[in-house]
């Protein structure tokens, strides 16, 4: 799928407006915020689906219908101090892809049967998160933060073939553990890493990333970033496990 996806670019602009609003509120309420914008090229490495997860559903590869990408996936993060060593973070991470592929067999999905042949598919996995974190290690040469993330998963899978269509929505709350590390390499360069993750019950979720950044102006830095997103759930209602890897550019505004 071409990287010039108009809807995703409009989503990025919309997220930027939301982030600026949150940042302004944070600046008034507490302290100057830190705003991070990531522009990522995301590859789909795996996406196995079965709905329902019984004999009434067919387990198939959604990746074989939509392709591997790359797809455009922006991420917007705003964080601000909430106390001497604690802070809040809001993260907006939309992800949507759609394409038409071919299936070599019939697929039973969400009560509908799709014949072998061309099938249009759409996959959405938007993630809206709020994190509270504590600076566990706070030194000039190393900062380590730990905390908890409340995630709202806004996911859906849709198939269409001619006049036949079916969609499975999966919106819900997901609690995650959070950790991040930041280490300056010199007066201009720095290395950072972060992870939101939790395993147990019917599934697991991992969202991890690393970034190498350079300050190019007071309060502004740009960097290269790589991310790994993996997870899913296995229940009677749905079987869905997906994996994505991303690379891209990151821009940070951190007023002093």
What do these coordinates show?
The chain is mainly β and 256 residues long. It has one domain: Beta Barrel (Lipocalin). The protein contains 2 helices and 14 strands; from the N terminus they run αββαββββββββββββ. The strands form 2 sheets. The chain has a 10-stranded antiparallel barrel with strand order 1-3-4-8-9-10-11-12-13-14. It has a two-stranded antiparallel sheet with strand order 6-7. Strand 6 and strand 7 form a beta hairpin. Residues 1-9 have low confidence and may be disordered.
Which labels suit this protein?
single chain; 256 residues; ten-stranded antiparallel beta barrel; two-stranded antiparallel ribbon; 2 helices; elongated; disordered N terminus
């Amino acid at each position: 799928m071409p990287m010039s996806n108009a809807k995703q670019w409009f989503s990025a602009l919309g997220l930027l407006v939301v982030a600026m609003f949150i940042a302004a509120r944070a600046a008034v309420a507490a302290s100057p915020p830190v705003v991070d914008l990531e522009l990522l090229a995301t590859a789909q490495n795996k996406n196995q689906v079965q709905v329902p997860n019984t004999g009434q559903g067919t387990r198939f590869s959604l990746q074989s219908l939509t392709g591997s990408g790359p797809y455009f996936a922006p991420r917007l993060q705003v964080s601000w101090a909430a106390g001497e060593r604690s802070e809040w973070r809001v993260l907006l991470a939309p992800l949507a892809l759609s394409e038409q592929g071919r299936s070599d067999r019939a697929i039973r999905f969400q009560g509908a049967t799709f014949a072998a042949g061309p099938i249009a598919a759409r996959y959405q996995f938007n993630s809206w998160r709020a994190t509270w974190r504590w600076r566990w290690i706070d030194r000039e040469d190393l900062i380590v933060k730990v905390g908890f993330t409340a995630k709202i998963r806004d996911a859906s899978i849709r198939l269409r073939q001619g006049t036949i269509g079916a969609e499975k929505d999966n919106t819900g709350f997901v609690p995650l553990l959070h950790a991040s590390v930041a280490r300056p390499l010199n007066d201009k360069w720095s290395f950072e890493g972060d992870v939101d993750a939790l395993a147990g019950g019917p599934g697991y979720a991992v969202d991890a990333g690393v970034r190498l950044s350079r300050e190019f102006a007071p309060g502004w830095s740009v960097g290269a970033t790589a991310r790994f997103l993996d997870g899913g759930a296995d229940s009677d209602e749905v079987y869905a496990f997906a994996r994505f890897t991303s690379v891209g550019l990151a821009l940070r505004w951190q007023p002093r």
